[in-house]
Queue: 4 jobs
Job 1
Amino acid sequence: MTHHNEENYYLNLKPKLMKDFMNVEDSMKNMLVQYLDQSKIDPLLKETRSQFETLLPTLPYVGGETNVLTDGLIMCAWCLPFFRALEREGLSLREIAKIIYEKMEHDVESKSAEKKRKVREFYFSPSMRTVEINRSKETKSGKYPGDWVSEYVEGDGKTFDFGIDFTECAICKFLEPHDALRYVPIFCLGDYATYRAFGIGFRRTQTIASGASWCDFRFKKDWETPRGWPTEELEEKFFF
């Protein structure tokens, strides 16, 4: 991809992304009526959409479609104005986290059984390990400063099969200048929804968002991933 295309990556995706998030907004309305007066929901979502459009070209390029985590950054640009608007309406971080977790949980659980099977099989295959080892090398090269930085961790097959330590978080990097680091743990919760839905055994004890130096993702084929809500039942600590 040329440098010019990298600069315009998100703008080129804009028509599709705006359409996608219109669909997300439609599905959010039923959840928001539990917390907001009906008359406030459409204006709030319209404001979110407008600010998402403004934030989109400010996202750092981290490899585009070659980086599976790019979608997480795009979601972050939509969630930032959405979370701020909800806070302004008096919702707590805990209420916002519950709304987003349940939305993500619903979305991933609705994937087909075949899709879930294929993802689960790939995750514990030699190909997955190769992907993560190569990605670790690339992230540490500094090619994309706004990217996550990771380290592949080989397991012993008993305590865990393999792990990934994230020493830098792209979402933290993007949200810090916006004085919005308080929102990062909400995104971390989504990992539990995703891995649980796909039947991928996952554990984590700490994250950069919670003040640790790295996020310790650990995977084992025969683990049952815990549900991410309520957070009090998780091994790692969330402060909402």
Job 2
Amino acid sequence: MRPAIKDGRVDRLHDMTAAEPTILATSGGLVPSRRLRWEVGPLTDYAVELAGVSGRAPRVCFLATAMGDNSEQVKGFYDAALHRGFAPSHLALFPMPNVEDPRELLLSQDVIWVFGGSVAGLLAMWRMHGIDLAMREAWQAGVVLTGVSAGSICWHAGGPTDSFGPRLRAVTDGLALVPFSNGVHYDSEEQRRPVFHALIGDGTLGAGYATEDGTGLLYRGSRFVEAVTEKAGKTAYYVSRSADGTVTEQPLDTRLLRAP
């Protein structure tokens, strides 16, 4: 069923996915494959589960804006999605949008999956084309938002990024669907942890959540709900600054997801 449009907004009451606005922000979701570029991992399966789809293939839309809509990444997504039994689509913005109405495409999905790359470039392109507003509307309508790296930071207020060069700097103009900062690849890239601490310590970023590779953060509305992982032994953290400027890192209970 396609959503009806009322007063410029989409009514998904009869085609609801998640019961409330839902984000699964990750440093994972894709796993190595013997035959494909990569395959869908348990984090992506969990995002689809959160959408509550039954009786049909889940509609999953892929955005590689942060990689300049790299065609190999788009093909890799289609291969992985079809292999898993999803109904795939994608939204490209380079050199022009690949669909007549990007908003309608996004609002017709069960899950929106955003790939990594330049989060600064992603945010600029989304705002240029009104995708930032469409994402907020889709989120409010129950479409599950997920993604990796840049596709995690974008939902937050900001986080450390290599969008500007090899030395990590802060991006502070994320969509802020959730009111926290976000650190990704926390255990695999040596700059990530100390830079996240420094940016929170000096007030450039507010308190936030960080994910080791293979780990994700579930938010319902603007509330953090749980940390989950597709790799045993991996975890997530809450990082905050006290009144005296001390930065504290708190490991979170992290639930291991099982492969289907």
Job 3
Amino acid sequence: MNRAQTTLLALALTLAAPHLGGCEDKASPGAAPTSSALAPAKPKTEASRAFGVEPTGNKVSFVMDAPIEKIFGEAEGAIAGEVFADLEDITKSTGLLKVDLDKLVLYQQKRENEAAAFGERSKSDLQNEHARNWLEIGKDVSEETKGKNRFVELKITKVETDGPKSVLGMQGAERKVVLKVTGDLRLHERTAPKTAKIEATFRFEGDKPVSVAVKTLEPVGVSLEEHDVRPRDTLGKILQKTQEELSTLGKKVSKDAMISLDFTAKAR
């Protein structure tokens, strides 16, 4: 190999180095620690009753509000899991919910600049593809990688209320409580604590509880940086953006997703 060929080879290796398999992408500076799947929830008391999430009729949605683009996410029938509710003392309840990101669909509203009006809401197949790449569940990632990132998990660790604690002490076919629920949210292999204000409506047939309908009263903010969700290629590798591209991206993608949940769980 002559000197010119050696120089060209060295240049090619230098340009290719960021994309070689031996190089690891560094996590976002504010990323939460990595973690494995969360342990299943267990009832805290003998009085706890198990409620299983209904596979249909449940929904996860979110809004990401950036200056020139709003992104809406919807995942119908994506929630599974189980809640253990102590109806004698609702603050002793636990649970584990899972959300299947394979069912997530994105929509968008765009405008030319910050002074213009937003256009109609529409779906972009390319944007949906990019979102799946960011989450590392795209078409070209390995099944192992997709398996690690496909599900979002929320484990309830603490329940508080300013109202009555005993649902059994209430009267009527529908008994409603407003709760402050704290738990661990695992998304993209990173777990962070979250708190949500929810409304839980327990339905009874006589003295027998048959189901509970749960919905968030206020959206829960989830940070993309905290869960290391950022621009990636189809294989999950970080895309190297220029400063100008990052500035433009910041006007299109909010740093936080404001998430809402709505589901019904039946007594087992």
Job 4
Amino acid sequence: MKHLHDILPRDRRGAIALTFALGLVPMLLGVGTGVDIVRGVQVKRVLQAAVDSAALAGASAYANGDSSSAASTVASNYFSLNGLPLPGGAPSPTTTVSTSEQSSNGVVSGYTVTVAATTQMPTTFMSLLISSVAVTTSATAVNPVSQVTVDGSGILDNFKSSACDLNTIFYYLTSDDNTIPNPNTFTSAQQIGTNGTTNNPSVSFNITATQKIGFALKNVTGGICNYGNSQYGSTPGTTNWYFTTAWPPSNNPYNSATLQAVPNNRSFYTTTTSTPNTVLTPPVGGGGFSTPPTYPTITCQQIGTQYVNYYWNDMGGNSDDLDYNDMEYSLNCTPAGGSHGSGTVASIQPVYLSR
């Protein structure tokens, strides 16, 4: 006996459609997963760039142990400016900023700022399985601490100049290129050298790569030998101050509080060299500077492995010889507390990322 299905032709279209439909689901999930993955990569790329730049900005502001809070604020603000809005409809991320100190051989060798950010990226095709995916990034930037050294051999011998004025150099820390500090706050630890003694040892102090350093010259008219009034009217025993960050020059420079410079002339001149103890010939009879000299402030990040030479003209005497040899010194930066980063002087001066 023949069965009915043996007589009638078989119709398999429904089975084929069902099979295709069942196979389409994983295919669509696979394609959709790829799309969501690409979106996640885009979100992560934006987040990573934002935390990188925020960490670098924060570390640059982390100039000393007292500026942790300010560094955190800078990093947070910088992230807000660069990390938003996120692509793909991702919500605003949750961010955290933390600071810490690095140390090497018991000495602070760097200040770090870590910025972390996370967001829940909503899925599209993958929403059948999961509604969102966490995207997390972080970056740590380091502001390395360097040792600034004023070399005591060779150049510092020029502190013992033939000037009749008594001259003393101090360093000070500043946040800009124009602030004139109160000289009454200077301490003996900030003294670099003086022509009032034959003993001027090397002076070293630690600062971060982005900390700006300025210099001040304390000038006492006739402090070593009395020649009467100077050509600019300063009487014997008068104390005058010059500051590298003072610009423009004062029109009435000689007084007991804030000597800045004399008209048509700056009080200091700078050069750079790649080797230590290089005494270069400063300008003679140059008349004066119409723009601020180079390096009114310096940072270790700025000068790297260079040596910066300073030449001062105290503008004393009965006539101004403009020879800039009344006080001379040279300085450079090296790692503090041992090496960090890759261990080379050139690599540790700038603020750097450390992931």
